[in-house]
Amino acid sequence: MTGRCLSHSNPVLARSSAAYGPSVTGLRCCPLGVSQRSHAAPAIPQLSRCSAVVRAAAAGVPVPSPAPASAAPQLTSEVLAPPQIFQKCLDIGVGKANSSALKIFLMAVLGGAFVSIGGFLALTVGMNCPGIASANPGLQKMIFGAFGFPLAVLLVVMTGAELFTGNTFFLPLAILEKKASVQQLLKSWFFSYIGNVLGCLLLVTAVRQTGLLAEAAAPGNMSVVKTSLTTAQVVVRSILANWLVCMAFWLANGAQSLPGKIVGIWFPISAFAAMGLEHSVANMFIVPMGIALGAPVSISAFIWNNLIPVSIGNVLAGACCVALPFALAYGTFGSKA
């Protein structure tokens, strides 16, 4: 091929070069007639890889699969939507309905003990601020509400303990959605109630033995006030109290994190305590504590003037103010109405 171009020696190649340019052949003619590699475009990486894959497959060599593309990050909320909270509370109600009487009773003893611990803390801190109480009674009430009972409800929520006032919401919810029977509701209410009473009385005995409230006037004064209210006052106060308590359970179940649960519990529980509303399980500790410390209140006065009407108001709040409207809004009960 010396002295002439390669394309001249091959008519077909010459015609291809003329039609498409020298890049097709990858060769060009130099002035001396020696063929040289042209500066053609580099091979496409994808085609090179495909060729390598084909050769590997032909040789029987396993071809590694390409790494999967990383999934886009999913945005999640720390708070459930109301229909999701409804479903979660309904599941809790169904679980409570199917619990054995023994389990309900034992967990209710714990629930009463937790509420009593919260009441003990509230009396120790919130009712032991005489200077603040005289100068700023509103602040003193806020301190009483902020410390104690929010801790009690947090312990109940995080341990699964039974609280009668919470069951006045969870069980009617399951009844309205046809997930539980009236018999199961009565079983839950009965054993959670007597378990709460026993848990509170055990803590009254323990706290009295500590002597830490021996000189405190607050338990006795509160016992006298609570047993001196009219029936109408007690019932309305107890409805408002358990409305807030059940909303605390609703908010706690809507939160996905422990800080969220704490915030959801703190606001409604501290509010009911600061406002001086009536909660049956809290009174199972406060009034017997006052009686144990010498308050001029009889057990019969406590039961008839306070405990029974407060319990009735708590039931009305849980069933009618919380369970019913949410079942109408988010449940199958509402779709049939």
TrEMBL record:
Keywords: Membrane, Transmembrane, Transmembrane helix, Transport
Main location: membrane
Entry GO CC: plasma membrane
InterPro entries, sorted: Aquaporin-like (IPR023271), For/NO2_transpt (IPR000292), For/NO2_transpt_CS (IPR024002)
Membrane association type: Multi-pass membrane protein
Localisation: Membrane
GO molecular function terms noted in the UniProt entry: formate transmembrane transporter activity
Record Gene3D superfamilies: Glycerol uptake facilitator protein
Transmembrane segments: 104-123, 143-176, 188-207, 227-251, 258-277, 283-303, 315-333
A UniProt-annotated Pfam family: Form_Nir_trans
Family to which the UniProt record says this protein belongs: Belongs to the FNT transporter (TC 1.A.16) family.
Protein name: Formate nitrite transporter
Originating species: Apatococcus lobatus
